[in-house]
Specification:
By secondary structure, the protein is mainly alpha-helical. The protein contains 2 helices and no strands.
């Protein structure tokens, strides 16, 4: 059994923090940060594709309606004459 003085002298106390703690935290947080970054990138890519698809469909519909209107006008002129 240790006496109080012996116990104090053999105890290892440090006042400095563990120097590997920052590395440990970085390694623990890195997968989460990578997952969040990839999720954001995927969401952004899907969003951009959706916006571009919507614009393309709108453009094609407008062109088709203009073409149909011109054909109807030309048909009406041809049948009236």
């Amino acid at each position: 059994m240790y006496t109080t003085s012996q116990h104090r002298s053999t105890a290892q106390t440090t006042t400095t923090a563990d120097p590997t703690f920052g590395v440990t935290v970085a390694l623990a947080v890195a997968p989460l940060a990578i997952f969040v970054a990839l999720s954001y990138a995927a969401f952004t890519a899907v969003f951009v594709v959706g916006v571009l698809t919507t614009l393309a469909v709108s453009f094609v519909r407008r062109r088709l309606s203009e073409t149909a209107r011109r054909r109807e006008t030309a048909f009406d002129r041809a049948t009236r004459a």
